[in-house]
Amino acid sequence: RIGITLIKLVLIILIIIISVSIISIPIFFSTDVPQSIDLICKNITHKINVSNEIKNNETLLGITDVKGEGLIINILDGKDIIHQEDLLIMIDELKNAGSQAISINNQRVTNSTYLYCDGSVILMDNEKIGNPFTIKAIGDIETLYGAITRNKGYINILQKDEIEINIEKSDNVEISKTNNSDLLNYA
Asked: 0.70 exceeded by the pTM?
């Protein structure tokens, strides 16, 4: 532990030295070196925060592949069939539970995703998806699972209608980026 902490300290000092030498060599000629070093550290922290915000926005837009813990929900029509409203309600439940990324039949759900019932299939962003449905959601496993399986939740309602649903918790859910060319071109 001491070795790792020492390495981290050395790396921080090296980052500061490199930043100072690249960004503002004249700072060392001023009389207020500690204040200048503090300013450089704030700039580095700001850049790291901006980088994290960019990653989060790319995830929300669906323009990057995402991996993490979450749920895999397999739905098979029973005596009744699944409609776009059913999928929309489940997507809303997952979003409300804090899901960071969702896909249906390996198609990424984004803010511009639409679902439309077209006979025996559902159109999702101009792509046909059909039974069986696999919904993947990345987020805190226990929170997502609790939200989706709660008493009188929508999964519970579908199961009472004899729709076959299997929910799997996974530490390694993979959701691909969107295939929506408009979003990818924008990025």
From this structure: no
Task: Out of 53-67, 94-108, 110-124, pick the least confident.
Answer: 53-67
Show Cβ contacts of residue 71 under 8 Å, excluding neighbours closer than 6 positions: 94, 135, 136, 137, 141, 144, 145, 148, 167, 168, 169, 170, 173
Residue pLDDT, tens place only, 24-48: 555 555 556 566 667 666 766 666 6
- 26 prior amide bond cis, ω within 30: no
Structure tokens given for 97? 């539970």
State the SS3 of the chain.
CHHHHHHHHHHHHHHHHHHHHHHCHHHHHCCCHHHHHHHHHHHHHHHHHHHHHHHHHHHHHCCCCEEEEEEEEEEECCCCCCCHHHHHHHHHHHHHCCCCEEEECCEEECCCCCEEEECCEEEECCEEECCCEEEEEECCHHHHHHHHHCCCCHHHHHHHCCCEEEEEEEEEEEECCCCCHHHHHHC
10, amino acid identity: V
Whether 27 and 36 have beta carbons less than 8 Å apart is answered as yes
Residue percentage of the chain with pLDDT more than 70: 65
